[in-house]
């Protein structure tokens, strides 16, 4: 049940967000080793955001997973997501943070129950 929640100050009007969501979903599933059927990606644009004292394109993300995260996996996720943000939204790799949460299944509700 990986969930990637990304916020950016980039305006997404006119951007093919479906392609970005699809690429992020496949990337997260592949790197974490979970079925893509359980991956959720949230992408919010036009979020008021300052990074380093400027409002140049930037992003903040959090990824939560029930298992599958480790220092090596986190590093791969960070690099791959940064590359997608840079190529699709022109957000420099140096202008985004990604926070990782490895959680227990009992902390997540789904399908009327918990994992």
UniProtKB/TrEMBL annotation:
Source organism, top-level taxon: Eukaryota
Molecular function GO terms recorded: phenylpyruvate tautomerase activity
GO cellular component: extracellular space
Family: Belongs to the MIF family.
Protein name as annotated: Macrophage migration inhibitory factor-like protein
Source organism of this protein record: Rhynchospora breviuscula
